[in-house]
User: Which sequence fits this backbone?
């Protein structure tokens, strides 16, 4: 199996984009709306990585680009990905991975303060 292919589907965000595109073509904006915790720029970078790996193809229509999955390029991984996406535990795992890889400021823990007593 090609290392580029494994690397491309190794990212939870890229797998989520593939899942969103699996049933049909979508614009980058539509993908971004379905991934509210990710910036549009990050979605674009992930789409570029998937395109460079040959897993996603795009077409221009006016000012928009529409993306679709090349299922044949996924080869034997296509069936495995479909099974994972159908599994409820997969959705839970993906949510946990996405939260773990979330960029930006982390929530601060409440600090316990001690007062001196005289």
Assistant:
């Amino acid at each position: 199996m090609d290392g580029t292919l494994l690397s491309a589907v190794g990212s939870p965000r890229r797998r989520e984009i593939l899942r969103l595109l699996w049933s049909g073509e979508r614009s980058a904006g539509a993908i971004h709306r379905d991934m509210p915790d990710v910036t549009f720029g990050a979605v674009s970078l992930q789409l570029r990585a998937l395109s460079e790996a040959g897993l996603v193809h795009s077409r221009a229509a006016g000012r928009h680009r529409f993306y679709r999955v090349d299922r044949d390029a996924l080869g034997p991984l296509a069936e495995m990905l479909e099974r994972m996406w159908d599994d409820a535990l997969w959705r839970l795992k993906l949510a946990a991975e996405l939260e773990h890889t979330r960029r930006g400021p982390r929530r601060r823990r409440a600090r316990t303060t001690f007062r001196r007593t005289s």
The two ends are 70 Å apart (CA to CA). Residues 29 and 40 are 7 Å apart (CA to CA).
